Amino acid sequence: MASNNMPEESFEGGDFNFDDDADDDQFVSTNSGRKRLFSKELRCMMFGFGDDKNPYTETVDLLEDLVIEYIAETTHRAMEIGRTGRVQVEDIIFLVRKDQRKYARVKDLLTMNEELKKARKAFDEIKYVGTEGKLK
């Protein structure tokens, strides 16, 4: 056994005191006190990916903090590369272009968005024609 001047630790007792850890502060949310926006959706997503049906609130809050941090960082990066002061779809596409999964997902979402716009427009036209026929 290598001799280091560290005392040998025994983990058999199971009496761990983590209250005195100095590193606990890194897990405290910097956004404490703000309204949780995505809790319901994240719980459903977590369940869909194999987590418990009712995950711990702390886990959902941590995940939400990570999601919001990612969105904020991505938005700031998109604003830096864009010409205008606003985030454009092209800026997001440019940011994710090297990540094939993200790029494919963005393209899928944009395609679905266009299809939904066309379907809504067609539905509104049918609805308008239907009400116009009743007026005559």
From TrEMBL:
GO terms for cellular component: transcription factor TFIID complex. This is Transcription initiation factor TFIID subunit 13. Keywords: Nucleus, Transcription, Transcription regulation. The TFIID basal transcription factor complex plays a major role in the initiation of RNA polymerase II (Pol II)-dependent transcription. TFIID recognizes and binds promoters via its subunit TBP, a TATA-box-binding protein, and promotes assembly of the pre-initiation complex (PIC). The TFIID complex consists of TBP and TBP-associated factors (TAFs), including TAF1, TAF2, TAF3, TAF4, TAF5, TAF6, TAF7, TAF8, TAF9, TAF10, TAF11, TAF12 and TAF13. TAF13, together with TAF11 and TBP, play key roles during promoter binding by the TFIID and TFIIA transcription factor complexes. It holds the Pfam family TFIID-18kDa. Its main location: nucleus. It is found in: Nucleus. Residues 9-20 have a biased composition (Acidic residues). The keyword Transcription applies.
